[in-house]
Specification:
Keywords: Membrane, Transmembrane, Transmembrane helix
Pfam families: DUF2306 (PF10067)
Order of helices and strands: HHHHHHHHH
Strand content: under 5%
Bound molecules: protoporphyrin IX containing FE
Helix content: over 70%
Number of strands: 0
Number of helices: 9
Structural class: mainly alpha
Protein name: DUF2306 domain-containing protein
Distance between the termini: 28 Å
Largest sheet: none
Shape: globular
Radius of gyration: 18 Å
Amino acid sequence: MSNTKRFYTLMLAVIFLFILYIAYVQIIYDPQSTGFLGFKTNLLHPLNTTIWLAMMRVHVVFAYISLISGAVNFASTICRKHRKLHKLNGYIYVAAVMIVGLTSGYMAPYATGGRSVSIAFNVLTMIWPAFTVIALIQIRKKQIHSHRKWMVRSYACCFTNLTVHLLTFFIRNASGWSYPASYRMSVYISIPLLLILAEIVIRTAWKKPEGMNRPESA
Ligand code: HEM
């Protein structure tokens, strides 16, 4: 098994477990997000819980779509042999990213951990769609290698929630900090960490497009 295939299989396993975990929390454990909302103190703007919950549910549904459609399009068979499916699925991914971005834009001002977290999420809400649009522009210019790189950068952002929650858990248990302080630190570590991981993936596991022998540039 090649490194790329091994990495892809591991990624699918992580996505599967993450989707199950979010579904468990959202449907069974805490459908009204009472626990998470309980950490929102000293908000700059009053929070309408009904609208926030509706936005968050739309956010999660389209986050799922972006995770799944992104994973499908990274499969080498889909890339090489099913170009039409890859293209259609790619547009689904772009639309999902935009909707997750829009809902994120609504939720960011009320972020747990305060203003600094709101700013970090707002930055991510701009760079994630930007990476995705750059990837789209690159493929329209037939720059396959560059398209792959920007898609890896874009897809890395799909793991924000997973990374933030994992880090919050570890920081909180290791330091004894409050949930909002641990969450704030996690958001500030997660965003650069995911961007660095994307660069590592581009240079290692995803370096060579399997079975693609077209000339590459960019
Ligand atoms: C694609 C995978 C993603 C999933 C599954 C996901 C899921 C969630 C969930 C379940 C929440 C509710 C709070 C919680 O329990 O964490 C949430 C909140 C939020 N998400 Fe996402 N999300 C994803 C990606 C993103 C991305 C890429 C951004 C930024 C562009 C983002 C921005 C936000 C914001 C701003 C909040 C509100 C945070 C707060 O209130 O403190 N999410 N997300």
